[in-house]
């Protein structure tokens, strides 16, 4: 379990990084273009288009990483007030909803990709980018996100069967759950110090 | 349909479904329940167009800029220097948040980008001086809204295009309300910290000597600011391009401070993508939800209802404000403008109001929508960067600033001349 | 007319366009229902109503999201290079020539649209003539050299670069501020659209270099269309052909009205009188020839490669002849 989990986590982090490096690269490219243009030796104007592909790529390639980091923001007003069992169930429902939404987006994205492939679609710019390239990469990110969200849901569900609520909180809870865990640890430490 | 939609929205939020997922589920549910057209088929196309929208590129770039400034220690030195100067003021660095937001608002046309940048750089300061966390992040979120009021502004450009109104005049009109609003935000902080001194954090011991010594720390951020704003106003770059220049300038500074390592860049990238992924899922879902709500004719129905009611001028304005408050629960302000402004502006102009003035009013309503729960994009962005605690802290924290927004909207309604004074100098 | 009743879901163009306000809205909300004695009713929305941008509309129509849609032909040029062949920059500023070319190519465009997108073509017309708005002194075509021109498709970029200018890529939302600050010296849009968008506030020379016509079409989802009774189909085809005439007439009026409003000469009917008035820069016949030369050399040869020899010979025969341009098939 641990090994698969950590390799999925590593792949997800590196996918997010690649997306970020793409964005950083387009920032450099755009800066070069701006400098050349202001020197009057332009001719290059592909940065904007490439940056928009980098954004699309970065958007979906970081989604799985955000699942691991529990960064998909939730409103937890009600959840926080529930018993550990119900809290765990809702945490799992939240993860499952990400998997479901990922599936819907992947399914739609597949349609986009297929249409571009069938029509041999290119961007109508001097770059003339075959759209299947950025769209294919974008779609891959969506599929990976769906897979990761699904695996995480299953993982959390097995912990639910075992009644291990703190593990579920670690996988699927909101960050505020961490604060509570920290508080508990803090309190126990405080008490232990007091006893000494 | 609206009651069902609202009910579903609150139910999904209450059981803690992630915001992006919640919006997409809501959209699909509305489509299956109410729409005669198979709208779900568009989910792929719309997700692609929204996630590859060049205008959004500035958002991750500004976050990256913030992350680099943070990890090179530049942001920290900046805040410490500012603390030397305004530490005596009740609320201390929270005023710096507003000021920094104002500065970034002058470089970015997007409120999300402004809020994301400031929350990244301000985050480490929260524990240091003992501020009320809620109020501190509230000030960050509120400051972010200035992004679309102070020029440049994507929303004002869009308004100009939709209504044939002069964009330069709209830009001029946004400056004064932007400054006044920032002042009101600061005033709210001051008042609250005077009433509840514990919110305002500790005071620090300082001397004129250490104040003077802190000045050089202001230079690097000033350099970044000069690069971005200079490139825009000297006509070297568009606002989106200037974000790229800002990232590059930050890298150069980090190198000068001998902080530029591969590890540091990777950490900055990781932090950027954590926030970007969260935002982009919401963007894709919000785009589709907007499409579903618009394509079902909901907004058109509201628009024509308003048009046919024959309201008094003030009644018209008040019902428009009501629409923005209600729709602001579901929709992103930008698409909300696209579907309402072309229909409502002619009515407002026919009622005798100035279209430039109305543009500023609309943008202020958009600002309000960005920080009002349950769907407030800036709240999500700031919470995504914060990565601890509950989003309810933010919802409570922005309340005083919502009051400031209501006050300035009232001022704008009562004294239209205040908005139109600067643009009138153009002629 | 006794045709069975039917309700059509139709998406139109941008609300801000005269074509939308003055032709499409009356056609769908009045003419169609009245001419059919109430049998044909339409659920008609603008792109803004629907919250979509435009380039995705043909794909959505093909999926059956709408029964009929307006689309901009050149948006789909990346999928079918033939679709940009009525919008070549530098080719013609004569609307009658343009119509002849459009009529000539229509069957071929209809065929491609059916085969690739599953869409039946109903009408084909321009929004208006696209020209250059510049804020640097331009008195002849040669003055464009060295200027930064904001373009938004491949053909425009190639022509502008061929004329010695620099093509820059700026999103639509940033064009006006970019012109004001000088990030771009010139930008391209229709004479009328640029007027209502107040581009004269940030530019002072209206350069009549033809940059294409922004050709639009109405198409029907082929499956939904085939389900309609023949009688209804015949009725609709006749009605759309009638609307097409109105669109050409509107485009013609808009081109001149846009010039009048921008330059403050003649009557300005549907626009805003520019203050200060823009300077109108017309091209001499030598300059027009020069633009056409660059078009042939830089744009058409590249296009021919993408479009293929069948497509090129179709174009030569049906469109090229009208304007006296022959694309060599390499
Ligand atoms: Na701004
Ligand atoms: Na809101």
Low-confidence parts of chain C lasting 5 or more residues at pLDDT below 50? none
Oligomer: heterotrimer
Tally of DSSP β-strands of chain C: 11
Strand content of chain C: 15-25%
Give Rg of chain A in angstroms: 22 Å
* Tally of distinct domains of chain A: 1
User: N- to C-terminal separation of chain A?
Assistant: 39 Å
Order of helices and strands of chain C: EHEHHEHEEEHEHEHEEHHEHH
Q: Which two protein chains have the largest interface (Cβ within 8 Å of the partner's Cβ), and how many residues from each?
A: A-B, 67 and 68 residues
Structural class of chain A: mainly alpha
Bound molecules: sodium ion
| Class derived from helix and strand content of chain C | alpha/beta
Please summarize the sheet with the most strands of chain C. Answer: 6 strands, mixed
Shape of chain C: globular
Low-confidence stretches of chain A: 190-196
Shape of chain A: elongated
Query: Helix count of chain C, per DSSP?
Result: 11
Question: If you had to describe this structure to a student in words, what would you say it looks like?
Answer:
- The complex is a heterotrimer of chains A (196), B (427) and C (330).
- In chain A, helix 1 runs antiparallel to helix 2, helix 2 runs parallel beside helix 5 and helix 4 packs parallel to helix 6.
- Chain A is mostly helical.
- Chain B is globular and about 65 Å long.
- Chain B has one domain.
- Helices cover 76% and strands 0% of the residues of chain B.
- Chain C has 330 residues and is an alpha/beta fold.
- In chain C, the strands form 2 sheets. Chain C has a 6-stranded mixed beta sheet with strand order 7-6-8-5-9-11, with helices on both faces.
- In chain C, helix 5 links the parallel strand 6 and strand 7.
- In chain C, helix 1 packs antiparallel against helix 9, helix 4 runs antiparallel to helix 11 and helix 5 crosses helix 10.
- The chains are: A mainly alpha (196), B mainly alpha (427), C alpha/beta (330).
- At the A-B interface, helix 1, helix 2, helix 3, helix 4 and helix 5 of A face helix 2, helix 3, helix 4, helix 14 and helix 15 of B.
- The structure holds sodium ion (NA) (2 copies).
- The site of one sodium ion has 8 residues of chain B, from loops.
């Amino acid at each position: 379990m641990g090994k698969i989990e950590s390799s999925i986590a590593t792949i997800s982090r590196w996918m997010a990084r690649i997306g970020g490096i793409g964005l950083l690269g387009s920032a450099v490219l755009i800066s070069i273009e701006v400098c050349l243009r202001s020197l009057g030796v332009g001719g290059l104007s592909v940065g904007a288009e490439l940056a928009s592909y980098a954004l699309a790529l970065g958007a979906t390639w970081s989604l799985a990483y955000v699942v691991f980091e529990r960064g998909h923001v939730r409103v937890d007003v009600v959840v926080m007030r529930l018993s550990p069992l119900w809290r765990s169930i809702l945490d799992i429902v939240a993860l499952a909803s990400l998997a479901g939404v990922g599936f819907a987006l992947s399914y739609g994205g597949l349609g986009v990709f297929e249409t571009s492939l069938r029509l041999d679609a290119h961007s109508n710019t001097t770059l003339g980018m075959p759209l299947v390239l950025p769209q294919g990469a974008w779609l891959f990110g969506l599929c990976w996100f769906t897979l990761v969200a699904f695996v995480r849901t299953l993982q959390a569900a097995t912990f639910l069967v075992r009644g291990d609520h703190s593990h579920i909180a670690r996988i699927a809870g909101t960050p505020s759950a961490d604060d509570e865990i920290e508080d508990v640890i803090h309190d126990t430490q405080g008490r232990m110090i007091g006893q000494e | 349909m609206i009651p069902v939609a609202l009910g579903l929205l609150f139910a999904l939020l209450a059981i803690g479904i992630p915001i992006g997922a919640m919006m997409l589920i809501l959209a699909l549910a509305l489509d299956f329940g109410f729409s005669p057209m198979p709208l779900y088929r568009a989910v792929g196309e719309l997700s692609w167009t929204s996630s590859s929208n060049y205008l959004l590129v500035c958002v991750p770039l500004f976050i990256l800029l913030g992350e680099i400034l943070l990890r090179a220690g530049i942001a920290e030195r900046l805040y410490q220097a500012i603390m030397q100067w305004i530490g005596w003021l009740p609320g201390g660095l929270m005023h710096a948040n507003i000021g920094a937001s104002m500065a970034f608002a002058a470089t970015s046309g997007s409120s999300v980008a402004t809020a994301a940048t400031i929350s990244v750089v301000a985050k480490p300061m929260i524990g240091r001086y003992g501020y009320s966390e809620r109020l501190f992040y509230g000030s960050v979120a509120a400051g972010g809204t200035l992004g679309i009021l102070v020029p440049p502004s994507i929303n004002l450009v869009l308004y100009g295009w939709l209504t044939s109104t002069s964009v330069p005049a709209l830009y001029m009109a946004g400056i004064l309300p932007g400054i006044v609003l920032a002042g009101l935000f600061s005033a709210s902080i001051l008042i609250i910290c005077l009433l509840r001194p514990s919110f305002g954090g500790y005071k620090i011991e300082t001397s004129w000597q250490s104040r003077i010594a802190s000045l050089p720390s202001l230079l690097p951020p000033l350099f970044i600011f000069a690069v971005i704003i200079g490139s825009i106003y000297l006509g070297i770059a568009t606002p989106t391009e200037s974000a790229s220049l800002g990232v590059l300038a930050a890298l150069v500074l980090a190198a000068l401070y001998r902080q530029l390592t591969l590890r540091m860049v990777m950490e900055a990238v990781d932090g950027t993508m954590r926030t970007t992924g969260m935002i982009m899922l919401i963007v894709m879902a919000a785009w589709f939800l907007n499409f579903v709500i618009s394509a079902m004719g909901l907004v058109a129905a509201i628009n024509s209802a308003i048009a046919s009611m024959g309201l008094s001028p003030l009644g018209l304005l008040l019902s428009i404000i009501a629409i923005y408050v209600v729709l602001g629960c579901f929709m992103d302000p930008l698409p909300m403008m696209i579907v309402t402004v072309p229909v409502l502006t002619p009515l407002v102009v026919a009622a005798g109001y100035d279209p430039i003035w109305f543009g500023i009013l609309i943008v202020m309503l958009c600002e309000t929508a960005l920080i009002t729960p349950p769907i407030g994009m800036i709240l999500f962005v700031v919470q995504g960067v914060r990565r601890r605690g509950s989003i309810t802290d933010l919802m409570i924290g922005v309340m005083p600033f919502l009051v400031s927004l209501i006050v300035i909207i009232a001022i704008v309604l009562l004294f239209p001349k205040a908005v139109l004074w600067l643009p009138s100098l153009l002629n | 007319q006794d045709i069975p009743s039917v309700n059509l879901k139709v998406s139109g163009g941008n609300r801000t366009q005269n074509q939308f306000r003055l032709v499409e809205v009356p056609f769908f909300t009045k003419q169609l229902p009245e001419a059919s004695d109430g049998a044909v009713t339409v659920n008609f929305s603008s792109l803004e109503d629907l919250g979509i941008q435009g380039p995705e509309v043909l794909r959505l129509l093909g999926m059956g999201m709408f029964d009929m849609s307006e689309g901009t032909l050149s948006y789909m040029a990346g999928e079918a290079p033939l679709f940009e062949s009525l919008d070549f920059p530098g080719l013609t500023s004569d609307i009658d020539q343009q119509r002849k070319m459009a009529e000539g190519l229509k069957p071929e465009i209809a065929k491609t649209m059916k085969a690739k997108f599953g869409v039946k073509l109903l009408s084909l017309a321009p929004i208006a003539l696209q020209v250059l708005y510049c804020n640097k002194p331009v008195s002849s075509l040669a003055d464009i050299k060295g200027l930064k021109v904001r373009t938004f498709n491949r053909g425009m970029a190639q022509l502008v670069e061929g004329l010695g200018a620099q093509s820059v890529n700026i999103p639509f939302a940033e064009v006006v501020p970019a012109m004001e600050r000088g990030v771009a010296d010139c930008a391209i849009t229709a004479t009328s659209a640029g007027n209502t968008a107040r581009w004269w506030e940030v530019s002072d020379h209206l350069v009549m270099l033809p940059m294409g016509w922004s050709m639009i079409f109405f198409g029907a989802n082929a499956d939904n269309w085939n389900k309609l009774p023949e009688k209804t189909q015949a009725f609709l085809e006749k009605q759309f052909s009638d609307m097409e005439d109105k669109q050409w007439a509107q485009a013609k009026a808009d081109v001149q009205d846009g010039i009048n409003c921008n330059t403050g000469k003649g009557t300005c009917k549907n626009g805003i009188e520019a203050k200060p008035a823009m300077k109108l820069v017309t091209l001499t016949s030598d300059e027009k020839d020069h633009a056409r030369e660059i078009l042939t050399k830089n744009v058409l040869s590249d296009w021919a490669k993408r479009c293929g020899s069948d497509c090129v010979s179709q174009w030569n025969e049906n469109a090229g002849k009208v304007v006296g341009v022959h694309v060599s098939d390499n």
